[in-house]
Amino acid sequence: MYRRSLCHSQRSAGCVTFKSRQVDLLTQAFPGRTRLGVFWDQISGDQFAAAERQARSLGLDVQSLKLDHPPYDFDAAFQRLAEGSPQMLLVLFINLNTAKAIGVDVSTAIQLRATR
Questions:
Q1: What is the dihedral of CA 53, 58, 63, 66, to 10 degrees?
Q2: What are the residues whose beta carbons fall under 8 Å from the beta carbon of 18, sequence distance 6 or more?
Q3: What whole-number distance in Å separates Cα of residue 26 and Cα of residue 21?
Q4: Among 16, 36, 91, 116, whose Cα sits 20 to 30 Å from the Cα of 25?
Q5: Do residues 66 and 41 lie in contact, with contact meaning Cβ atoms separated by under 8 Å?
Q6: How far is CA 15 from CA 22, 48, 59, 78, in A?
Q7: How far is CA 85 from CA 25, 42, 43, 108, in A?
Q8: What confidence tens digit (pLDDT) does each residue in 23-77 have?
Q9: Cα angle vertex 26, ends 23, 30, to 5°?
């Protein structure tokens, strides 16, 4: 059975920890940058909370944009987020349609999911 998720469970501790780690990796990849933009949706709320806590603990200014009513209008979302001039971007998506909309190779994600 396939889940419509790139994490093994929508609310799994492993997925939340992974999102916190992604914030760490962004700060390492872009040292000196302090403004983090985050796209998230209702389903990824737990991941957003963990990522936001981690970002704030690292002294980052978090500029979040909750996406509602899929399919999401990413053109408008990017324009809105750009108003705050983020220096880094974290996209927390769960839905495979969202993944497709931002250019993730969904066929690879499904293959990886099927092998677990």
A1: -30
A2: 7
A3: 9
A4: 116
A5: yes
A6: 11, 11, 22, 25
A7: 20, 24, 26, 32
A8: 999 999 999 999 999 999 888 888 999 999 999 999 999 999 999 887 788 889 9
A9: 145
Q: What is the pTM of this model?
A: 0.71
Tokens at residue 20, please? 């916190």
The CATH homologous superfamily of the domain defined by 13-114: Response regulator (3.40.50.2300)
Q: Are strands 61-67 and 88-91 parallel, antiparallel or unpaired?
A: unpaired
List the domain boundaries for the chain: 13-114
Q: Token digits for 73?
A: 């209008």
CA 20, CA 43: separation in Å to the nearest integer? 16
